[in-house]
Design goal:
Shape: elongated
Region (Disordered): 1-21
Keywords: Membrane, Transmembrane, Transmembrane helix
Protein name: MFS transporter
Helix content: 55-70%
Order of helices and strands: HHHHHHHHHHH
Number of domains: 2
Transmembrane segments: 27-46, 66-86, 93-112, 124-147, 175-199, 219-240
Strand content: under 5%
Biased composition (Pro residues): 9-18
Oligomer: single chain
Radius of gyration: 26 Å
Number of helices: 11
Length: 272
């Protein structure tokens, strides 16, 4: 029999819920696998320790340096393809990125130095620029593919309105101009990268110095290359948005499909 003077039983406190771990942003992983790890693999003296992947893993010498060079070049390729497969991302933009990664991986087996290495290191930019310029003369400028991908998750009505707007002749001209500007800036970025490589990567292919110089240039050029790429994107987007607003009014925007749909409906231009 319980003691009437005793305090009622207090239920034990439930353990605090575990807080979900903060996820590492994808941008960080991108930098780790496409920049940091390749630089460490190429470095002949990692963090001043006297250790290098070429010597420690591959036995050093020309053979070791070439293997380290290939490993550094192929890790970003594998990372991009793995990301595509895991996320099952089959959008045109993702597929273009995957094709570019494969192209870069294939070029790794072109063993050159000096002038031709400088060209090779920017070949992806040159190819991208040329393809964009060619597409500008077609009915589907490649910059439209990027913009179209941004509306994939939208409701069918909004997506249809965006696609109709991009087919409009006035907006199409903006897409063509934006595609050309993006291509030209990408090619300019490639030329700058080639010049820097030509000036700084002067050692013979397969040497310690060659790998070290590549690592230095990769670290030096990543931010400027990214800034130039973003400049090309922003310039192209501005040109397209200007065309959209001139055609449908200030409230219209390809990046706000709901507003664009409403504006087109009010103007009586939205097709069923």
């Amino acid at each position: 029999m319980s003691d009437p003077t005793s305090s009622p039983a207090v239920p034990p406190e439930s353990p605090p819920k575990a807080q979900p771990r903060a996820r590492v942003p994808k941008t960080v992983w991108d930098l780790v696998f496409t920049l940091l790890i390749p630089i460490l693999i190429l470095s002949p003296n990692i963090f001043g320790s006297g250790v290098s992947v070429s010597d420690t893993v591959f036995g050093g010498g020309t053979t070791g340096n070439i293997r380290a060079y290939l490993l550094a070049a192929l890790i970003p390729v594998v990372y991009v393809l793995w990301d595509l497969l895991v996320n099952r991302n089959v959008s045109p933009v993702a597929l273009i990125g995957g094709a570019g990664a494969i192209f870069s991986g294939a070029l790794a087996f072109w063993y050159v130095d000096g002038f031709w290495y400088a060209i090779k290191d920017s070949a992806r930019s040159y190819l991208t620029g040329i393809l964009f310029l060619i597409s500008a003369a077609t009915s589907v400028p490649l910059f439209r593919v990027f913009l179209d991908a941004s509306s994939i998750g939208e409701p069918p009505e909004h997506r249809a309105a965006s696609q109709q707007a991009m087919r409009d002749p006035a907006v199409h001209k903006g897409l063509v101009l934006g595609t050309v500007v993006f291509a030209v800036i990408d090619i300019i970025g490639g030329i700058i990268n080639s010049v820097v490589n030509y000036q700084r990567v002067v050692a013979k292919f397969g040497s310690d110095d060659f790998n070290g110089q590549i690592a230095e240039v990769n670290a030096l050029m990543r931010v400027p290359s990214l800034v130039l790429s973003l400049l090309g994107v922003f310039a192209a987007v501005w040109l397209v948005q200007r065309a959209v607003k001139a055609r449908y009014g200030e409230g219209a925007s390809l990046f706000e499909p709901a507003k664009l749909t409403q504006v087109m409906r009010e103007k009586g231009e939205l097709r069923a």
